[in-house]
Structures are given as structure tokens and as C-alpha cells.
Amino acid sequence: MGLTELPGSLIAGLWRQPSARAALVTLGIITAMAIAGPPFLPDPAAQPDVVGQALLPPGAGHPFGTDQLSRDVLARVVGGARISLAVAGLAVLVSVTIGAGVGLVAGYLGGAVDAALMRLVEAALAIPRLFILLLLLAVWDHIPLAALILILGTTGWFGTSRLVRGEVLRLRHEAFVTGAEALGARRARVMFRHLLPNTTGPLLVAATLGVGDVILLEAGLSFLGLGIQPPRPSWGGMIFDAKAVLVTAPWTSIFPGLAILATVLAVNVLGDALSGAVDPRKS
Amino acid sequence: MSRVLEVENLRVTFPGADGRRVAAVDGVSFGLSRGETLALVGESGCGKSLTALSLLRLVPTPGRIEPESRIRLGDADVLGLEGAALRAIRGRRIGMIFQDPMTSLDPVFRVGDQIAEGILAHFPVSKREARERAITLLRDVGIPDPSARADAFPHQLSGGMRQRVMIAIALAAEPEILVADEPTTALDVTVQAQILEVLDGLRTARGMAVLLITHDLGIVAGRADRVAVMYAGQIVEEAPTAGLFARPSHPYTQGLFESIPRLTGPVERLRPIPGTVPSATAWPSGCRFRPRCPHAFEPCGREPPVHEVAPDQRMRCWLESEKGDLRSEK
């Protein structure tokens, strides 16, 4: 699988593919702007008290224009990137951790434990994630950011757990696992030292694709007013705010829309390329 | 000779299609003394690997060791152990070498760490100390430049090197019994000889008992003290190596010898045993070798008795006659 040379050779392998390279560059730029941009930009929440500054088209002072409340759209897109990427990253971290844990336990212990966990996962998968999210968020008026991350994370691990379980089922009768057992290794050790590292490839792919999912979900929720709460900038929230001026001031919705499109597209292209890079049969 | 391992009436069963359990290992008994090498010989599917896995209670689910089986390791009853007591035996008292060195090493771990894992699981030593011992073990199994090789990943080593690493892992916790399940099957002939050499040297140096599992009678000669021939889940003949090679008694054992080309003596056609080992679900009643046996006669439909054909040589067969008559028949 070549995972022993992670991450150097994996990145080198991705770099050789033009589409993956473009995705890496796109994500690199967005991440760099999200991290380093804000100090050089106006405060995304600031509302200059100048009536004439509202809804300015893109121009010298404001490259992406301004919105109804005279806020700089570029600053808000960058601020939104910061939030969106952080929320997506942390939520995926939560879901991958739970998913890997459940998948390992179910796959390795098998039997009743496996049956119980997998029926639970199947039941959860039968309900659309957006529906669960809307239900959970509807009861919460102004949801704190940490709670939003936790909810997104705890509703996103079902598929991952099945993926990891599948890998573990494949690996668990590999000779090296039996070998570790024959040496007197504890079950936890077999699971976390031998099985988990050997599922890193598929897990990495699932995590990458998961980031794209969460960004879209969060944008959708924020658009519905259920996600990230104003005045904190978010891409979905910006599009929601821009609804009233969609035709007269299209820049207020086009730029956050483009940001969502570019990020999710790049993440998915990268995930696709990764799944090829970690699977020797595809290369 | 002190017995270090005693296996009695070992039965391993799997659920069959009609709900009844099928015995893939059916009433296997053997003993192993300190410093002795016992070879367990048989074709694929005869249950020899399952027998080996049973010793460590590693029979894959849904397989099960039946309660009437007995495995005694010194004064410990292996089948009565659970949890920590069971782990204390795995690796520490019985070390195991697996067949395929390509898949038996964890691809994401440095080989030194994999050896150290067995040391750390059983001895209260520091990581540094475990690494030192791992390097010593690598030297013992004949790996040049062991301290550098300890940092290698499995895919950076050749097949022979990997099998040496496997041996080092099996020896890590200084077991008194080494189970080698087809240790050289995946290797080419020159490397095979080297590996067997290493195993022999270590056995002598450490006074270990070795259970050598193989389908290759050529490996057995000159290395094993005794041989047990397995067919369809049962031991059909057991004898000291010299005795078995001089007077193979069971028709199956004879068939095995006749299917090996010989370098000396008149050139004869090889006589392969007709047919293949039936699967565990389709074993015939009575003698299981009956459908393939050239000597099958009326009583073979009943369970054959185990009887002594020579001092310390036993077989499971209805043929009572001395070997001389059988040979003259062909």
C-alpha cells in the first residue's frame, strides 16, 4: 500500500496528477487566505456607517464589492473560509474518530457486538443526515459553534464505520494479525497498533470526501439560518443574506457561491485522487 | 525425556451446511518432548495447520475445539485458559512461525519493532532493552547488519530475510516450543535449506521442542526425530523418522513416498496417489483413505484400529500384515 512512506511519497504521487495538483493548489490558496488573510482585510463584521458604501459593485476599494450592510464581501468570504474549513475539519475529525473506533470494534470482535453496532448504523443510515440535523437544530435557537461541530461530527460517522469494519474483516485473518495474537498481544493492541494503521488509506479518503460533505451541509444549514449564526460570516449565510438583492447585486451571492464550489470541487477531486494513490490496484 | 506438550483426542469442528458440525481435525493425539522435533506431514486440507493453531487457541471462528480434546503444556491445561493466562502462553511458551513471510509481517511496522512487540508483551523490559534484544535475535537468525535491518520495513526485505525475521519474532519471548507451519513453502530451494539450517541450529542451542508442519517429506529427512503422517483430520501413522523412511507402513504413507522422485536406484514411473483429499464434509465412514487406497478390502468400511507395526511405530489401518507382503504385491 506504500503507506510506510507517508506522507512524502503520497503527496509526490498526487502531485504527478494534473487534476490533483490543481486541487491541492486551490485548497492551498483557500487555506492560506483563511489563515493569513483576515489581518490584511477589513473586519468582516464591521458595518461602516456610510449609506453610500452599501451594495458597491466590485471595484478598487472592495475587490468583491460590498453587501447591504456595507460590509466588504472579500473579507466576509475569507472569514467564511476560516469558519467553514475549521468547522468541516473538526467535524470530520470527530466523525472519523468515532467511525474508526466503531468499525474496529465491530469488525474485530465480531459476533453479537458486530451485529448490534451494524444494525444501529444501518438504522441511522436509513434516515437522511439532513433530516437528523434539521431535527436537532430546530430545537436549538442560536446554536453555539462547538455544538454545531459536534452535531455535524456525530451524524457523519456511519459510512466511515462500515468502511473501516469492511477493511478490518479483510485484514483480521491476515497472517500478520494472527501472528500478533500468537505473540500474546492484547486485543486493544491488535486493534489499534496493527489493524488501525493498515486502514489509514481508506480512512484518509473517507475523511477528505467527508470534508466536502460537511462544507456543503454547513452551507446549506447556514442558508436555512440553522447553522453558523450572524454576525459570524459563513458562505451559506452570505448567500441567504443576499437573497433580497440576488438580481441587483449578484456579487454578494456569486463570490461565496464560487468559494463553496471551488472548495468542495477541490476536496472531492483530491479525495478521488487519494483513493487511487493509496490503492495500488488503481495505479 | 520430559514431555513438554501432550495433545490428546484433539477435535476441531466447523458448522456444516445441514447444521451438524464437521470435524476438520478428528481425534489427533501426539506428544512432544524437550529438544525433540516432531514433523506433522500431510497434504493441504488434512488439518495440520488447524492442529497448530489449536495449540495457541487461534482457531478462526466459527471453528471450535471440542470439549473432549486435551492440550497439556507442561502442567497447564491450554483449553482451560482464558484472557491474560492464555496470552501468557502465546509467544512465551509456544512460538509460532507462519507459512507466508510476505503476509505474516505487518506492512506498516519496522521489523525491529515487530520483534520487540513480542519481547515487551512478556518481559518487563524497557523499549531500548527490547530493541537490543531484537537486534541480537536478528543476528541469531543470520541477518547481516542487524542494527540497520531492524529499521527496515517488511517490503524492503527479500523473502528469505522476511522468513528469518518471522523466526526471530517467534523466538522473541524465548518459547520452549516452536511451531513452524510450513516455514519454507513460500521460499525457493536454496533459501529453504538456509532457513532449515537456522531453525536446526537454534533448536540445538536453545533446547526447544519443534513441531514442524510440512507437506514435504524431503524436509523431514534428517531434521525430524519423529514423523506423524496426517490424512483427512487424523494421524494415520506415527514413527521415528528413520523407521518411517525404512518401512513406511500405512498405504497413504507409502503413496507419499512413491510420489517422490528418487535420485538413486532404478528409474521408475512415479506413482501419484489417485484422487485428492476429500473435503471434511465428504469424509467416508470407516477408513478415510479407503477410496484412494490400493489395498482397500472388506473391513475398511469400519473404523480402522490403531496398532503397533514395529517398535514405536503405529498406524491406523486394517492391514495387520508385515510390510514385506505389501511391497511384494506391487
What is the secondary structure topology, with strand pairs?
The complex is a heterodimer of chains A (283) and B (330).
Chain A: H1 8-15, H2 18-36, H3 73-109, H4 111-126, H5 129-138, H6 145-154, H7 158-171, H8 175-182, H9 187-195, H10 200-223, H11 235-241, H12 251-278
Chain B: E1 3-15, E2 21-33, E3 37-41, H1 48-55, E4 64-65, E5 70-73, E6 76-77, H2 83-87, E7 94-97, H3 111-122, H4 127-140, H5 146-149, H6 159-171, E8 177-181, H7 189-206, E9 209-214, H8 217-220, E10 226-231, E11 234-240, H9 241-246, H10 251-258, E12 306-310, E13 313-316, H11 323-329
Parallel strand pairs in B: 3-9, 3-10, 7-8, 8-9
Antiparallel strand pairs in B: 1-2, 1-4, 1-5, 5-6, 10-11, 11-13, 12-13
Describe the structure.
The complex is a heterodimer of chains A (283) and B (330). With 283 residues, chain A is an all-alpha fold. Chain A contains 12 helices and no strands. Chain A has helices at residues 8-15, 18-36, 73-109, 111-126, 129-138, 145-154, 158-171, 175-182, 187-195, 200-223, 235-241, 251-278. Chain A is elongated. The N and C termini of chain A lie close together (11 Å). The mean pLDDT of chain A is 83. Chain B is α/β, with parallel strands linked by helices. Chain B has helices at residues 48-55, 83-87, 111-122, 127-140, 146-149, 159-171, 189-206, 217-220, 241-246, 251-258, 323-329, and strands at residues 3-15, 21-33, 37-41, 64-65, 70-73, 76-77, 94-97, 177-181, 209-214, 226-231, 234-240, 306-310, 313-316. In chain B, helix 3 (111-122) packs parallel to helix 6, helix 4 crosses helix 6 and helix 6 (159-171) packs parallel to helix 7. The longest helix of chain B has 18 residues, at 189-206. Classes of the chains: A mainly alpha (283), B alpha/beta (330). Chains A and B meet through helix 8 of A and helix 3 of B.
